[in-house]
């Protein structure tokens, strides 16, 4: 039976990491996967996380199962981070949250819950979007449509096209929105654009599904939630899949959450019972460690402010790398305008490099970026910058 199984294509992002690991060249650079690197090129454990783990080691007294929805205290602090503690959604108990394995697990739970329990069978995703979105939603049997988002000529968003495409969506269709730090373009909506999207969702009865994987990597923890809060102020029903992989550096703990918002406390309680049923049929209940770290940090004023300062340091280092990247390309003699890169948000930049140029970077210069031309700026350092920019200058010449 198994001999009939076709070989799966390599994953566009993680497959690149495998190829990178197998590369024996010494000056190789991996700017494929979205992992934060510090100036020394390593991905450290945050000090706030280490301190929380020390606290947990001293106090944790059982490894008994969690409930289906995970650590209760964690689910509360997730809502406060997403909406702000005083938001009416939180105060009126219109949201319920379940801890889930990373942003990916949260998206998958949200999608399966929708397919099994609602009329929503189609999801609109931006073109381009994170490479795994289609895979996750197809696995949950959602149909996929795309809305235009990016203008390759201006290296900016194409908001009119986004609105025009979404105006074709039917009542009950889902709209996937990147809360901030759009992956792969690094281009986000502004306040009035968010309001226009919220109004459109309300008018056409579309259901927003937020993918919120980079809170705090754009401008700040609250600033980055602006879009989500505008939509939650306008639209009665939505879902959020958030991740703490990046902003707490908890990549391998697989910690995120799925939050369901409905128009009343009663509706959300009833619908959420089906989110729990979806989880029970997948992995029964989540692992505890990541959630305990996050809730320990956020419940402690000292640890919270240490975390915020560590997050700020990561955000500011990436912003510096953006400017340095643009300057170093210029210094290497590149005449093409790359200044748009310093205006983008978050870990990624959509460079505009072609598939052929990306292949040449890998084959001839051992610089690995995703085929779409997406570069992880978070993997750049002062040390590897000259190597990267020299290679790009060569493929552009
Ligand atoms: N959504 C987006 C847009 C992402 O970039 C990522 C991570 N690359 C995720 C979701 C998934 O995050 P996690 O690793 O927590 O599953």
UniProtKB/TrEMBL annotation:
Keyword Transferase (UniProt): yes
Family matches, as Pfam families: Aminotran_1_2 (PF00155)
Domain Aminotransferase class I/classII large: 27-392
PROSITE patterns listed in its UniProt record: AA_TRANSFER_CLASS_1
Record key words, sorted: Aminotransferase, Pyridoxal phosphate, Transferase
InterPro entries: Aminotransferase_I/II_large, Asp_trans, NHTrfase_class1_PyrdxlP-BS, PyrdxlP-dep_Trfase, PyrdxlP-dep_Trfase_major, PyrdxlP-dep_Trfase_small
Single GO MF descriptor: identical protein binding
GO BP, sorted A to Z: L-phenylalanine biosynthetic process from chorismate via phenylpyruvate
GO cellular component: a single term: cytosol
Cofactor: pyridoxal 5'-phosphate
Enzymatic class: transferase
SUPFAM superfamilies: PLP-dependent transferases
The enzyme's E.C. designation: 2.6.1.-
Self-association state and partner proteins as the record states: Homodimer.
Family assignment from sequence similarity: Belongs to the class-I pyridoxal-phosphate-dependent aminotransferase family.
Stated name of the protein: Aminotransferase
């Amino acid at each position: 039976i198994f001999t009939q199984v076709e070989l799966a294509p390599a994953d566009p992002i993680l497959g690149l990491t495998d190829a990178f690991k197998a590369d024996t060249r010494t000056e190789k650079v991996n700017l494929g996967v979205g992992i934060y690197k510090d100036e020394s090129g390593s991905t450290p454990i945050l000090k706030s996380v280490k301190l929380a783990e020390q606290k947990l080691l001293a106090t944790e007294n059982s490894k008994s199962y969690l409930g289906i929805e995970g650590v209760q205290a964690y689910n509360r602090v997730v809502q406060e981070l997403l909406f702000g503690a005083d938001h009416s959604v939180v105060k009126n108990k219109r949201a319920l949250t379940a801890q889930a394995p990373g942003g990916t697990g949260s998206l998958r739970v949200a999608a399966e819950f929708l397919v099994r329990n609602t009329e929503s069978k189609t999801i609109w995703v931006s073109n381009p979007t994170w490479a795994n979105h289609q895979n996750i939603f197809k696995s949950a049997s959602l149909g996929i449509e795309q809305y235009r988002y990016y203008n390759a000529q201006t290296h900016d968003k194409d908001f009119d096209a986004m609105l025009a495409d979404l105006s074709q969506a039917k009542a009950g269709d889902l709209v996937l929105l990147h809360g901030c730090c759009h992956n792969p373009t690094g281009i986000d909506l502004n306040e009035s654009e968010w309001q226009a999207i919220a109004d459109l969702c309300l008018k056409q009865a579309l259901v927003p599904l937020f993918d919120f994987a980079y809170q705090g990597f754009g401008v700040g923890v609250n600033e980055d939630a602006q879009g989500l809060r505008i939509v939650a102020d306008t639209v009665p029903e939505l879902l959020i899949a958030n991740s703490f992989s990046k902003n707490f550096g908890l990549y391998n703990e697989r910690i995120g959450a799925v939050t369901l918002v409905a128009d009343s406390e009663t509706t959300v309680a009833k619908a959420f019972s089906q989110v729990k049923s979806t989880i029970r049929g997948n992995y029964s209940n989540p692992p505890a460690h990541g959630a305990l770290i996050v809730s320990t940090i956020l419940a402690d004023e000292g640890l919270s402010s240490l975390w915020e300062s560590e997050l700020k340091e990561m955000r500011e280092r990436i912003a510096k790398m953006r400017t340095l990247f643009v300057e170093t390309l210029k210094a290497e003699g590149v005449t093409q305008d790359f200044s748009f890169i310093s205006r983008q948000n978050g870990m990624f930049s959509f460079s505009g490099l072609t598939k052929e140029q990306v292949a040449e970077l890998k084959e001839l210069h051992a610089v690995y970026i995703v085929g779409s031309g997406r570069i992880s700026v978070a993997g750049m350092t002062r040390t590897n910058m000259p190597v990267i920019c020299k290679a790009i200058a060569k493929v552009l010449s």
